[in-house]
Fold:
Amino acid sequence: MKAVAARELKNRTGDVMRALRRGETLLLTFRGKPVATIIPCGDDRARTLEIQRYEEAWEEIENALRTSAPRFVSWREAEDTTRGRIPCNAVTPRDWLRRARRS
Structure:
């Protein structure tokens, strides 16, 4: 299912209509959050397709985060790792962080 932002729907209505004519089902989003599903007329899925509410989906994400082990020791380590600030001689991000704290 292809996601379509509200602004894209406004600016490219013709493209959206062509996609629906081809039988595609579209997920309409507003500010990145699912709002509605657009299903072509006559599609049997129109009665059975159900999208999880944003609040329920976010709760599932939070529960998964609570039960999973953190990949980094701290936010600083995560930022440094993703921004490529770890020196080449560091064995692992955690080793680098320990060395940085000592200095």
